[in-house]
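Researcher: Let's try something more involved. This one mixes different molecule types, so please make sure each is placed in the same coordinate frame as the others.
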Amino acid sequence: MSNKINTIGIPSEEEIKKAQIDFSPRCTAAGRVNDKETQKMVEYILNFARKHSLFVLAYGTGCGAIEIPATMTSRYDAERFGIRGAATPRQADVLLITGYLSTKTLKRVIRVYEQMQDPKYVIAFGSCTINGGMYFDSYNTIKALDRYLPVDVYIAGCMPRPESVIKGFIKLQELIQNGNAGNGECYRDNLDWYRTNQQKIIKNWDFPDEYNW
Amino acid sequence: MDLIHNLKEVFEIDAKIKNDFQIEVEAKKELVSSILLYLKNQHGFIHLDHMSCVDWIEDEVFELVYIVWNPNTKKTVLLHTKIDRNKPEMENIDTIWDQANTYEREFREMYGIEFPGLVAEREFILEGWTEMPPMRRDFDTKKYAEETYATRPGRENAEDVREKIIKRTGEEIPDFAKKYSRD
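Model: All components are placed in one shared frame. Result:
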């Protein structure tokens, strides 16, 4: 490995301890105050448009991706809420983390998330992303997703049925309308904290030095 | 049966009939490749179904199981062999079946069994793994997970929180769910 790869650096023990002590996730949708009264009119209209056209990246991890075809097709028909698929990360608004996430996949998911254009939203599926679920003692899956990526909405269940999935999307739409969703900016501001957490579990770190977002 | 008789004659091993479709054979590890080649060429067991590994930590052995199948007679042979757990090494059989290469890579990564002469990347499923091979039984996976991954603190008590949720959201518990209430 050359030295160029680790400009942000493998975290020192102090940094790791700090990350462990400071446990609360940095970017949560609930933390921001930006409701209808304080929003500008342009922002309000933009949010209205955004919430009715959610392009979901056609990407699934774990077992939860099996609920997506059922949600999208004729029985539950998510497209009546403006939810539809997008082919590439750069065209997508929403990233779905559907179920357990192994460290190997986490690396790819981070790359995908960082390529998405603002505003971008993350919906985490199932109990595995919340607390590890049935993989609580697995050597190879992460236990709490919001240490590594900012999450807007969690959908509980193992697996959540399409009704719950749609309810999660409606919750996301509410958050978007109130101006509380979309953590891309917060992720960039707290990049060091997220990078420390990510590098702690991704051993062969070979990300680009810098993104020009 | 022909096969059992032949195995006794050629290799001096006892095969036993497990059921109508399965024949179980146990052999020393030096004989495994010759038996597999014999079964493939002479008895039509042309298909390698599966290879698996069992960690018998109490006896300090790994048990490898080779499952081969004959498509004409629809019979299966399960070939068991035991190798030393402290110095795990096994003969490479990907010259007999190409697909054995993948299984052997997995054994090498998950159990640390070496296959001399196996041509494959060392890294297979795990990325950047530096610990003990994780499928070994003395690898404490829960301890490793607790040390490595951030976990979310759980609830302190086991109270039924549905009442609180109902108050907060104004939903109602449907009748069929009431009988599962803890109260």
